[in-house]
């Protein structure tokens, strides 16, 4: 069954209070997908972001981003008032996220909601902590200690807390239950609101494709609580960090700085941490894109303290052993995972891809600079088991990219599409149609590409900081005309999926229950047991 979908981060949704969140606008976007014949909503990682605001550098792999908690829903629950929120500054530009103002005002709003939550009859911080999943609770403790230590990186905390000494952590927990409870409250609201969004997507027949980074952030509860699973010394410093080697795009390579996994120790545990992580994600999403998949076959290790990636070396990763453990745990012949296999891919990575059976990615923006043999050109696709994109979150918008590439590359696109230079204004739509016409089982288009937006709508520019992860779609950006155009494109190429009808309010709860039962029967890994 051929499918299509849109890529739009949660933070890029329109709405009040400065950032996209899990409220009405998320439901409206699901309706947009369903009503235009699309089947998939691809989001970016939804973990709690730290310095730099990157969703690929989260404080935890087992927690949600507090910025995404919808404040209007908290108002409906009686935990906030519109008068209180009116006095806060969430940023003035509806087209950009101001993370500095979000950090201050969102924290004030959520703490006010927490204070009011504690006043509710029957509410109990102790019960809230008991109901919080352990890995998420570890994040709550981590954030409470970080608050007490004025935001310091965990490796600069007092020694016993730094080393996650059990007695020290328990003593801190007893003394700071209320602060830990605040973070648990936020996570409870995130889970509740996301579940409502996800249930509504199921009702309308929309699949949500999530995303996880391969690596954890150095300053994260994952590394702090499980240092034995990472390449660290006894003083809390990594012995090697992640990145990629020098190439045509960077003479010194890319130094990401993430700590590397101790894969031997993971194997000793039967890859339990990864099983837990993937299981957490399967609870959130219908399918999952795993970033930097080639790192499972071999990872690039850079000595800690180096200022560039030039002195790194390739080291063998866990390979198929990890995925066999996942298949065995979930008891399925097929895992709903998409492998991000972009960049320089070796034969060994291709073999791992084939053995796992995961679909890879084909990005049209990468197709035009190496002649007719470029593997991203549509005529070179050799399998339907892939997802075709016009671009990803790391690419420029299709319109701005086409306007700024070299003339020779643009001319090649004109020749390939049998068009003339007079058609430059129509090229975004033509390239979307090229993607739709490939043999790929699935095609996903960034929302900004359908809207024909310029470079201000770019989500991320790798290797830069200060202007990334900020773009927000305007309210009503998809007009009725644009919806019709999208639906026609999806339909012409046989990717139109008839959606479930939008439920009436009185029917909604019953429909959600029925959709959950159907989804569990058809999409759960247990449904595919041998």
Account of the protein in words:
The protein has a single domain, classed as TIM Barrel. It is globular, with a radius of gyration of 23 Å. Helix content is 41%, strand content 10%. With 530 residues, it is of the alpha/beta class. The strands form two sheets. Strands 9-6-3-2-1-12-11-10 form an eight-stranded parallel beta sheet. Strands 5-4-7-8 form a four-stranded antiparallel beta sheet, with no helix packed on it. The protein is built from 20 helices and twelve strands.
Number of helices: 20
Number of self-contained structural domains: 1
Mean pLDDT: 93
Instruction: Please state the second-level CATH architecture.
Output: Alpha-Beta Barrel
**CATH class label:** Alpha Beta
Unreliable stretches covering 5 or more consecutive residues: 521-530
CATH-defined fold name: TIM Barrel
**Basic shape:** globular
Strand order of the largest sheet: 9-6-3-2-1-12-11-10
The termini sit apart by: 23 Å
Helix content: 40-55%
User: How many E strands?
Assistant: 12
What structural category arises from helix and sheet content?
alpha/beta
Major sheet details: 8 strands, parallel
Strand content: 5-15%
User: CATH homologous superfamily?
Assistant: Glycosidases
CA radius of gyration: 23 Å
């Amino acid at each position: 069954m051929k499918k299509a979908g849109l890529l739009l981060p949660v933070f890029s949704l329109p709405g009040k209070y400065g950032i996209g969140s899990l409220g009405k606008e998320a439901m409206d976007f699901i309706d947009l997908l369903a009503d235009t014949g699309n089947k998939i909503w691809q989001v970016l990682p939804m973990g709690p972001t730290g310095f730099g605001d990157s969703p690929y550098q989260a404080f935890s792999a087992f927690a949600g981003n507090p910025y995404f908690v919808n404040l209007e829903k908290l108002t409906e629950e009686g935990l906030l008032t519109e008068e209180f929120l009116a006095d806060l500054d969430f940023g003035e530009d509806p087209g950009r996220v101001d993370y500095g103002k979000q950090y201050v005002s969102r924290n004030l709003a959520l703490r006010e909601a927490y204070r009011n939550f504690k006043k509710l009859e029957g509410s109990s911080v102790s019960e809230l902590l008991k109901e919080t999943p352990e890995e998420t609770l570890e994040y709550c403790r981590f954030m409470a200690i970080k608050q007490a230590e004025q935001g310091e990186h965990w490796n600069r905390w007092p020694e016993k807390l730094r080393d996650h000494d059990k007695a020290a952590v328990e003593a801190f927990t007893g003394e700071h239950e209320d602060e830990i409870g605040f973070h648990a409250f936020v996570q409870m609201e995130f889970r509740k609101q996301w579940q409502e969004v996800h249930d509504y997507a199921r009702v309308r027949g929309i699949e949500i494709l999530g995303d996880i980074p391969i690596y954890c952030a150095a300053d994260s509860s994952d590394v702090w609580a499980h240092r034995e699973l990472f390449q660290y010394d006894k003083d809390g410093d990594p012995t090697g960090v992640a990145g990629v080697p020098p190439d045509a795009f960077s003479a010194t390579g890319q130094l990401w700085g993430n700590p590397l996994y101790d894969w031997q120790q993971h194997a000793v545990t039967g890859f339990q941490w990864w099983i837990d992580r993937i299981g957490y994600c399967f609870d959130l999403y219908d399918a999952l894109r795993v970033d930097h998949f080639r790192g499972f076959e071999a990872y690039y290790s850079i000595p800690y303290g180096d200022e560039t990636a030039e002195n790194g070396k390739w080291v063998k990763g866990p390979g198929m052993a990890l995925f066999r453990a996942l298949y065995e745990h979930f008891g399925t012949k097929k895992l709903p995972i998409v492998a991000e296999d972009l960049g320089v891919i070796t034969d060994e990575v291709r073999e791992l891809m084939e053995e796992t059976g995961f679909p890879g990615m084909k990005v049209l923006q990468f197709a035009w600079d190496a002649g007719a043999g470029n593997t991203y050109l549509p005529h070179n696709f050799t399998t339907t088991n892939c997802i075709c994109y016009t671009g990803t979150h790391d690419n420029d918008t299709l319109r701005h990219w086409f306007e700024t590439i070299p003339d020779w590359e643009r001319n090649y696109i004109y020749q390939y599409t049998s068009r003339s230079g007079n058609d430059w204004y129509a090229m975004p739509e033509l390239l979307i149609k090229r993607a739709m016409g490939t043999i790929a089982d699935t095609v996903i288009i960034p929302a900004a590409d359908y809207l024909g937006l310029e470079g201000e709508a770019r989500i991320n520019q790798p290797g830069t900081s200060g202007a990334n992860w900020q773009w927000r779609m305007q309210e009503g950006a998809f007009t009725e005309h644009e919806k019709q155009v999208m639906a026609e494109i999806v339909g012409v190429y046989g990717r139109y999926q008839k959606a479930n009808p939008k439920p009436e309010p009185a029917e909604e709860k019953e429909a959600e229950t029925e959709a959950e039962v159907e989804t569990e029967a058809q999409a759960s890994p247990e449904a595919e047991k041998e």
